[in-house]
Design a protein that fits this description.
The complex is a heterodimer of chains A (about 150) and B (about 300).
Chain A: H1 18-31, H2 44-51, H3 55-67, E1 71-74, E2 78-81, H4 95-109, H5 114-131, H6 137-145
Antiparallel strand pairs in A: 1-2
Helix pairs in contact in A: 1-3
Chain B: E1 10-18, E2 25-34, E3 39-43, H1 50-57, E4 65-70, H2 78-83, E5 84-87, H3 99-109, H4 116-125, H5 139-152, E6 157-161, H6 169-185, E7 189-193, H7 197-200, E8 206-211, E9 214-220, H8 221-227, E10 229-234, E11 245-252, E12 255-261, E13 271-273, H9 277-285
Parallel strand pairs in B: 3-7, 3-8, 5-6, 6-7
Antiparallel strand pairs in B: 1-2, 1-4, 8-9, 10-12, 10-13, 11-12
Helix pairs in contact in B: 3-4, 3-5, 4-5, 5-6
Amino acid sequence: MEGDVVEYRIDRQSGIPAYVQIVRQTEQALRMGVLQVGDRLPTAKEVVAATAINPNTVFRAYRDMEQAGLVRSRRGLGTFVTRSLARPGAEDDSPLRADLAAWVARALAAGLERDDVLALVTAALDEHDEQHEHDPGDRGRKQEDA
Amino acid sequence: MTGPDEPAALHATELGFGYRARGDRALRDCGFTVPRGRITALVGRNGAGKSTLLHLAGGLLRPTHGRIRVLGTAPDSAGARTRVALLTQDKPLYPRFTVADTLRMGGKLNASSWDRRVAERVVREGGIALSARVGELSPGRRTRVALALALGKRPELLLLDEPLADLDPVVRTEIMATLMAEAAERELSIVLSSHVLPDLEQTCDWVLLLRAGRVELSEDADALREGHTLLTGHVDEEPALREHTVVHRRRHGRQLTALVRPRGPVGGSWHVERPPLEEILLGHLQDGAAPKEAAA
C-alpha cells in the first residue's frame, strides 16, 4: 500500500474538463502498471495543492472511478485502487515494449519526427482496423459521412 | 454535501446600492443565489459593481435598496462577522508590524474562532519568515499574509476582492492552490472577483457575472459550458440564429462567429465548438453582448 504513486497534470487549455483528465490519467497509470491494486490515490487536498484546481473536480473524478469499480474510498483512510487495467505486454520490461523502443529508434534515425512517428502508428492501427472490420468505431463512421 | 434547506452562501433580492456623491447606482435590481460550498468567480468589467457587491456582503456597506443575506443572516450581524471573512483590495495590514505581530493581532481580533496553525501554515507555504516586516514584503507575500489572516479566522464564507491582481503567474497559482486546499479540507464557500479569466477556468464552479450594476449570470460553471456553443459559418446562415440567444457575434468578411445559447437544435451549416469558460465569460462581458432579457 503506497500513496504518492501518481501525480496529476491538468492542462487548462485543452478544453477537456479537469475531472475527465484525472480519470484518464488514472486509467493510463493503471494500464501502464504505474498504479496497482492496493495503491492509494493522492487525497483531494494533495491534488488541489499541487494543481490549484477546484476540489469538487477531484471528488467528482474519484466518485466516477468508484462507480466504474476502479477504486474504492475508505472513510478516513483514502481512496484505493481495486482493479487493474494493466494488460500483459504493457509493462516497462515487456518484449512488445522493447520491440517498439527499437523501432522508434530506427524511425528517428531515419529522420522522422515525433509527429511523423505518431502519424505512422495511427495509420497502422487504422489499417489494422480496416482489415479486421469487426468494429467500425468512430473513425470508420466519419469516413462514411464524408 | 449541502442540503436544499441550508441557507445559501449569498442571497440577494432587489439589491441596489447608490453612492451618494455619484448620483447613479453602482448596483441595481440584483437578485441571485450562490449555493454553499461553491467557489464562485465574480466577474465584470471595471465599474460593474464587483467591489460594491463584496463590500455589501462583507457588511462594510449597507444596501440602499433591497437586501442581501450571507449564510442566512444579515452581513452586519454578530454571527456573520465571525463566519464571514472579507479581504478587500487595499489589504489593510500594518507595514511596521512583523508577520508574527500581524498574526497575533488576528488572533486577538478573532479570539473565538482563531486557528493559529492554519494562519501560520499559509504564511509558511509562501516561504515567509515570521520575523519579516509586512511593509518590506513583495505584493505576492503581502497578499499571502492578508490571506493567512482571513483563513486563520476559519470562516465559512470567504470574500476576496481581486486577490490575484498585480501578482505574477507563479504566485497566482500558489495562492489559488492554497485556497483550493483549504476548501478541500472543510466546508468553505469562496467568492472571488478577478479579471484574470484563465485562472478561473478550473478553479471556479459557480459564476456571478455583473454588467453595469446588474447580475447577468448566476450559474453553475459546467451548466454554462454545456449551455453555450461557438458557431462559425457563412453570414448567410445568420437567420438560423434568430430563435436562439446570441450572446455575442462577430462578422469578418463573409464569416460569422457567434457565441450562442441554443434553445434546441440550431439549423444551418456551422462549424460547432464547445467554448472554454473564459470565452463564454468574455462573450458576456464584451460591448455589444446582448443583455439578458432583450435577446429574445
